[in-house]
Amino acid sequence: MVDWASLLQSLANGILIAGLYAAVTLGLTLVLGVMGIVNFAHGELIMLGAYSSFWLFTLLGIDPLLSLALSGVLLFFIGTGIYRFTIWPIMKDPPLNQLLLTLGLSIFFQNLAMILWKTDSRTIITSYSGMSLDLGIIHFGLTRMITFLISVVLTVLLVVFLSKTKPGRAMQAVSENNTASWLIGINVEKTYLLAFGVAAALAGAAGALVSTVMYTFPMVGFKLSLKAFCILVIGGLGNIPGTLFGSLILGITESFVGTYIPEGSGWAEGISFVLLIVILIIKPTGLAGTRRE
Amino acid sequence: MNDKILLSVNGLSKHFGGLAAVQNVSFSIRQGEIVSLIGPNGAGKTTVFNLLSGVFSPSAGTINLDGEDITGKRPFEVCQKGVGRTFQIMQPFPQMTVLENIITSSLFGRVPKISLSQAEEEAVELCKLVGLGDKQNTFPRNLTTPGQKRIEIARALAVKPKLLLLDEVMSGLTPTETIEAIKLVRSLRDKGTTVFLIEHVMKVVMGISDRVIVVHHGEKIAEGTCAEVANDPKVIKAYLGEHAEDTKESMC
Amino acid sequence: MNRLISGKSFIVLIVLAVVLIFFYPRVMDSYFLHLTIAIFLAMILASSWDILARTGQVSVGQAGLFGIGAYASALLYQWIHLPPVLGILAGGILAVILAVGIGYLTLRLRGIYFSITTIAFAEALAVIWLMIPDITGGAMGVSTPPLFGGNRILAYYLILAILALVIMTVWLIEKSRLNFAFTAIRQNEDVANVMGINPTRYKVLAFMISAFFTGLAGGFYSHYNTYIIPYEVFGLNVSIACLVMPIFGGLYTILGPVIGTILVKVIEEFLRVTVPYGHQIAYGLILVVVVLFMPDGLIGLWKKRIKPLFLKKSSVG
């Protein structure tokens, strides 16, 4: 007999975590789509967002769901700084150099966090941390529900930004063809700067969400970036619908594995790799959308 | 020239998304011929070359080289079957010397494989043949555009091709250089290589081609000798519809 | 790409060999011998990474191959008492088998797929190792019998032999047609393909060679250290060290990875003492600085900036 309640509960949990994964991956997708770079330091930007939210809560008592905007703004400036001083000078280099540079930044920030804040795992306990919503047979942790809703809002904001605003449209044009964009008067370098900044801001906001539902520790960004890479490949590298689809696949699979396989929660950490390999075997161009050439 | 068919292309099509870059193109080239592929910008000429050399696999149609079906073969396989090509945008390996660029091609494009020392000997010969004898140890970036085109040609020749695909190797050359290049192509043909070239400079096309194939919007609109093609109303219309400067030149 | 080894370098090589084989192990005290073994091990990792990098591929998961090598020899000893030296060889072979699998899946695609998959691969192995402790020993790790009953000098000779084998392999690659294939693929894969080179085949081959030596190094490490835990051998730190050392020294050269390793190890030893957590920050910094300011590493810096200074002086004098 199928236990429908547990099945539904597991599905719902999967969807909730998928929302967070989408928030984690969107910035990576944006930078890849617009600039053609897989930013290995994206996870560390998320980690910095999580720490900033943690400290704002611990020192000043600001609720992480409010400090989310502050983390976003902070990371926007850190992101634009990183772009201007490290990535901008090598944008015309072979892609190998951009990969190695962002990898170097990733290692740098991981270890900087260890030096500054040790390897302790930190958690935020708010007044509503333990609360949950009951909807008949299934129930949700309130925090998880809120992070999911905020992730949805972030996604919608990004889509609106890309389709309705002038700089957003410029990003789309650049992602299609940067030579042609230059010809029609788009400042490609400024667009790159903004795209990287927006991606970092998204990472900051995602980091604040992460700090409420997971432990905050120096390697948290690295662990999340592995999931984000998997999502990226499922989604076909660099498009938003693909990213959302990939997040759902990963979130739900992890949740089911956690529920139905003995010691599943431990195995769930390895799911992203298994999914990655499966995709590479059956359809390396991604399950959704088309591959960028 | 003999009557043996070296290359025969049948119903070749290539679609990108919904767009047809090449549409139902058929033609054949006899061994020892020099054939030009012409057409207005964006007509699909380079796409045809990319299909012939295996860079793209066709959406439909077949390509037959020397009696062997090479449709859908990957570029390195096509190369080893005897197709050498140059690129419209020159792409020498920047961190290899001129000679090393050519050696690479000799080493891997040939069947059966040849040794490193033999490849080097042949590459030195090829350097001389294309007029890079004194530049063989310089890096491509130190060469002018025509110089880099010579590397392209030498690399394509290094595979000892049955069929040589030349993608606009003569545009941007001075008149003297063009005459030299024409001589080179003729001498290659005399040695038995079949040459298929894309060219914009109509004087060149008319000067060396045995036959001309005209494509427009991805379709073949005419084929024949220079005179036949130049007087074809469809060809005139195709060129007039595009750019005036092309037209002036195309009318021989 | 000159043909034969010159007389001068031949003499240098002979002298180096004599010193390393006959004098060094006798003169050095135990601590320095230990340090030397650690550096040689790291040089093997660095040079192996560089072999693959010659085809333009960036592996961020050498730890996976290293860890497989380490565990293969450790567990084979536990299960069937396979002698350590054979265990080390088995580790290398197992790493090659995994490399073929990952290689054929990812190396036909754009390079980024390979990098992403390798980084995930090492992490996935760590997860597997933690989840099946009955087979793998779990988070607590496994102990292994010491090499040659703990004879450090013999261990030194073994690692020296492996290192010599790696360097010789790199040298042979540089002198062979492989060098042309690898370089062509790195510089422009599409053009290489049109010129008759099967890119996937040569990339997989390079990855196999790289994996073999990385696996051997893992096997050696497990017996030399006599104790391994998953977090260490599959850790990101190993993967990062594998790539920072050759990049720092200078890629696509024989000497680059060797020099890079020595310097990185010295910096690391220094920082390990001064910075308790996060001394690996140096790896990140080196990577960023090298990519931004010295794209050809120390070797390139020497050739472009420092050597000309001497030449100028001597020509004036």
In short:
The complex is a heterotrimer of chains A (293), B (252) and C (317). Chain B is of the alpha/beta class. Chain B contains ten helices and ten strands.
- The ordered string of helix (H) and strand (E) elements of chain C is HHHHHHEHHHHEHHHHH
Rg of chain A, Cα atoms, Å: 19 Å
Number of strands of chain A: 2
Query: Order of strands in the sheet with the most strands of chain C?
Result: 1-2
Helix count of chain C, per DSSP?
15
Proportion of residues in extended strands of chain A: under 5%
- The helix/strand order of chain A is HHHHEEHHHHHHH
Residues in helix, % of chain C: over 70%
Radius of gyration of chain C: 20 Å
The CATH topology of chain C, please? ABC transporter involved in vitamin B12 uptake, BtuC
Task: Give the oligomer, counting copies of the same chain as homo and different chains as hetero.
Answer: heterotrimer
Give the termini distance of chain C in whole angstroms: 32 Å
Number of helices of chain A: 11
How is the biggest beta sheet of chain A arranged? 2 strands, antiparallel
Shape of chain C: globular
Measured distance between first and last alpha carbons of chain A: 48 Å
Question: What structural class do helix, strand and pairing data of chain C support?
Answer: mainly alpha
Could you give the count of β-strands of chain C?
2
Outline the secondary-structure elements.
The complex is a heterotrimer of chains A (293), B (252) and C (317).
Chain A (H helix, E strand, L loop, with lengths): L3 H32 L6 H19 L3 H24 L7 H23 L14 E4 L2 E4 H23 L1 H11 L1 H6 L4 H26 L6 H15 L5 H21 L3 H19 L11
Antiparallel strand pairs in A: 1-2
Helix pairs in contact in A: 1-5, 1-8, 1-9, 1-10, 2-3, 2-4, 2-8, 2-9, 3-8, 5-6, 5-8, 6-8, 9-10, 9-11, 10-11
Chain B lengths: L4 E12 L2 E12 L3 E5 L6 H8 L7 E6 L2 E2 L5 H7 L1 E3 L12 H12 L6 H14 L15 H14 L4 E5 L7 H16 L3 E5 L3 H7 L2 E6 L2 E6 L1 H5 L2 H9 L2 H7 L2
Parallel strand pairs in B: 3-8, 3-9, 6-7, 7-8
Antiparallel strand pairs in B: 1-2, 1-4, 4-5, 9-10
Chain C lengths: L6 H21 L2 H24 L8 H19 L3 H23 L4 H21 L1 H4 L5 E2 L8 H24 L1 H11 L1 H6 L4 H27 L1 E2 L1 H4 L2 H14 L5 H20 L6 H13 L3 H20 L1
Antiparallel strand pairs in C: 1-2
Helix pairs in contact in C: 1-7, 2-7, 2-10, 2-12, 2-13, 3-4, 3-5, 3-10, 3-12, 4-10, 7-10, 8-10, 12-13, 12-14, 12-15
